UniProtKB/TrEMBL annotation:
One Pfam family of this chain: C1_2
Family matches, as PANTHER family: PHORBOL-ESTER/DAG-TYPE DOMAIN-CONTAINING PROTEIN (PTHR46288), PHORBOL-ESTER_DAG-TYPE DOMAIN-CONTAINING PROTEIN (PTHR46288:SF86)
Name under which the protein is recorded: Phorbol-ester/DAG-type domain-containing protein
Domain Phorbol-ester/DAG-type: 58-100, 171-219
Keywords, alphabetical: Metal-binding, Repeat, Zinc
A Gene Ontology molecular function term of the record: metal ion binding
Organism: Populus deltoides
Segments for region (Disordered): 367-405
Record keyword Metal-binding present: yes
Compositionally biased spans, kind Basic and acidic residues: 367-376
Length: 405
């Protein structure tokens, strides 16, 4: 008998009708039943003196917002006025009158364009497992909610614009819309949209709010010059919680790299319109670029030795460069060679900084002092010569150096 009493607490008699099940001892304090056992079933309170408040027990209301502290409460005991829809959790209901005046906080309500009822502001504890209807991540902290509809938003997500113009779909503006009960596929990530998203009714084009917000890094590249490519760091982003919130759980095989044929499970670029994807390492650096510091186009070269001094400098940053590393060089300036680090030439407007960071990490950035030049050829590197660099084999030892005279 003693073990049974320690394992669960059951309220008998008049209290029993309020309980759906026995409450385990380790949940007694969390649910408020511990306080409820020592409190009257009805009471008057300073914060709501016009009516008597009635006690309710855990699970009677799935959610309620305490009108004292404004906390969002889940499956716990409290007091309420049925007529006025006034609620107090056990903590606030137990405070003496002299502390109640400073406790009461003004109720804040607002209208959200994708919901028919006003949303009420509340403080959300970490234990609540509901998801934000916009970003699909678990709610916490300041939250706006409609308790009757089980509708929750982060306070920050409440500020999302109702209409946007997005690079994914420049033809028409995208409008916020709730897809609850009528899911669509997101054109960016190919996963289903079950809640609020951006949508073009004319083209039946939908984007998750998360995809529209975070996947904005772009790339214009010669391998796919027809359209702009968009940067996805898909599974890094998803691992933060977005993917886990979607049903059904997606496979990492949703995208296949056009170059190597393997799944795009890490960083990759995607043409939304053509459904073409390429790994970061499968995208070559552009063979020719235009830079604001030089009037002529610059050509990607395997390596360059420009004189007999044994010290080589970048024309853009004026720092030393390694002659064994590829560079961008002007082929037209015969008297005064313009040679620059790849990292100084490639900027965000030309290609993604992700590609540049990946390139520099593999290639290495430390200057290696060269006391004498190697005379292994005088021709400029061709695109085919640079193929090993472009396709991810650039960490192999470079055998030749181009000499400029």
């Amino acid at each position: 008998m003693r073990n049974q009493m320690q394992g669960e607490v059951t309220v008998l008699g008049a209290m029993a009708k309020f309980l759906f099940q026995a409450i385990p001892v380790n949940n007694v304090r969390e649910t408020g039943i511990y306080h409820a056992l020592n409190r009257p079933l009805k009471k008057t309170h300073f914060l709501h003196s016009q009516h008597t408040l009635t006690m309710f027990y855990p699970h009677y209301f799935k959610y309620f917002i305490c009108d004292g502290c404004r906390d969002l409460c889940h499956d716990v005991a409290g007091y309420h006025c049925y007529e006025c829809r006034f609620f107090l959790d056990m903590k606030c209901a137990s405070l003496p009158d002299d502390q109640c005046e400073q406790l009461k906080k003004t109720e804040s309500k607002t209208i959200y364009f994708c919901h028919k009822h006003k949303l009420t502001r509340a403080n959300c504890a970490k234990g609540i497992k509901e998801k934000c209807k916009v970003c699909q991540l678990r709610i916490s902290g300041a939250t706006y909610c409609c308790i009757n509809c089980n509708f929750f938003l982060h306070e920050s997500c409440l500020e999302t614009p109702q209409e946007i113009q997005h690079q994914y779909h420049l033809q028409h503006p995208l409008l916020g819309r709730d897809f609850d009960g009528n899911p669509k596929n997101c054109r960016a990530c190919n996963l289903q949209i079950w809640d609020i998203a951006y949508y073009c009714d004319i083209c039946d084009f939908a984007l998750h709010f998360t995809c529209a917000t975070y996947l904005t890094s772009t790339l214009k590249h010669e391998f796919h010059h027809e359209h702009t490519l968009f940067s996805f760091v898909a599974w890094d982003l998803w691992d933060q919680g977005f993917i886990q919130s979607l049903e059904p759980q997606p496979s990492k095989g949703n995208f296949c790299c056009e170059t190597c044929g393997n799944d795009c499970s890490g960083s990759f670029y995607r043409c939304v319109e053509c459904n073409i994807n390429r790994h970061l390492e499968c995208i070559p650096l552009p063979f020719k670029v235009q830079h604001e510091d030089h009037s002529d186009p610059l050509t990607l070269m395997e390596n360059v030795v420009e004189d007999d001094y044994g010290e080589y400098y970048c024309e853009i940053c004026q720092d030393k460069r390694n002659p064994n590393h590829p560079v961008y060089c002007c082929k037209m300036c015969k008297d005064n060679w313009f040679i620059a680090h790849i990292g100084c030439v490639i900027k965000e407007g030309d290609t993604s900084l992700e590609i540049l960071e990946w390139w520099n990490k593999d290639l290495g950035s430390d200057y290696e002092k060269t006391s004498s030049k190697e005379d292994d050829g005088t021709s400029l590197a061709s695109p085919s010569d640079l193929g090993s660099y472009a396709m991810g084999e650039h960490n192999k030892e470079v055998s030749g150096i181009t000499e400029l005279d």
